[in-house]
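Quick one - first record:
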Amino acid sequence: MPKKMRYATLTERKLFYEKEFNLESVDKWLKPLATYHTVFAVIMGRHTRIFRPEYAEDAGTTILIENYENLSNVRSDILEFLPEAVYYDRNLYDAKGKVCGQTLAFDLDPENLTCPIHGTLADKMKRHQGLSFCEIELRMVIEETGKLFERLQKLFTEIRIVYSGRGFHIHVFDEETFKWSKRRRGDLARKLKKEGFLIDEWVTTGSMRLIRLPYSLHGMVSRIVIPVNADELSSFDPIMDKRCVPKFLMA
């Protein structure tokens, strides 16, 4: 892992969600989806194996947070579970829980790139380092994200970039795409892959619905998930940028 990126302890997760988790920013992020019901989800310790002892049996389980009155209730549930990861479901639900669409997103992760030092993902898997990445790969994925954003600008209007804690997500909030079929999403994903873009087809097609919640903590690397403007990508440094470094690393 790059410098100062490490697993967050339970105490650090608690401190973050009590003191730093910005509910106003979360609410603002979800505003385009305000007419729908958002489902949240947490995973306590699938990768880090750090979890509250009383939840050991469910440490690797995806736990949905569906019934809540407001975001403060959601934070209370997060503080109960102290998860390594917090997500939201890209499916758009009506008041009765019926799926009436899904937001379109693209996922780019550094470990999927071929590193000049550490090799391909297959090479890393053989060394049991499938989720690891270095600073070179991090810089490479930043460049890839910028290229994909430029390509998507030719197709969509409402596009947002999010630093996911490891790599990047690109969200499309053009309302017409909310109704796209899985086949249409898949066609676009395959087209972009043929053009040389590195994306996770499972995410773009919608087979993987959950996506990391902006302003939450990525517990595997101790970084805050934050939106990033396209014009700052080239200079963005998630290792040192204070916006994505939690206070428990600054002490």
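second record:
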Amino acid sequence: MSFPKKAVCLLSGGLDSSTCLALASREGYACYALSFDYGQRHKQELVLAARIAAHFGAERHLVTKIGLGAFGGSALTADIAVPKARSAEEMSHGIPITYVPARNTIFLSFALAWAEVLGSSDIFIGVNALDYSGYPDCRPEYIEAYERMANLATKAGVEGLARLTIHTPLLQLSKAKIVELARELRVPFGLTFSCYDPGTDGRPCGQCDACLLRRKGFEEAGVEDR
């Protein structure tokens, strides 16, 4: 009797990571969803991540608490204003203040540790380098370098038992293409959350980079965002 391959899926509760989880599930993986409470100001995304994980039948949804807020240095983890109403031109230049130092490196390290324990050789992460290229840890060369490092650093890699693969199916997709893929995979849009600076009532601000990019993607795809 054969069992499905296990995959660790990084899940923030946003559109991209939810689409990745849906894709991994469709491809037949037994999915283990991993989310982080890292001191982010938009912590309500974790509630929706749990609902998304349940919706797609994840084998387990683990929320790990790590204290990136202790370091600050980002508008997402410190008392720094989140940029609002930026143009597409402004968003295309430089590294924004919403970048959290070393976040994906830390997230992938936790995913790698869990994958080793599970006996998994597959990690899914919803990084995207096309519509939002300002984050250095969303670039293809970063993912390639991390994957090489991971296969040098793990017991399975050293013993030649398995080779870890970091799957980035959204890496070169526009936000509109991600929306179209999410619709095809029947991702419940109303359970996904993309805002960096929600109000006290939990509603998206509508003006941060994440909100604007999401709106642009849905408009270009001709899909209603519920």
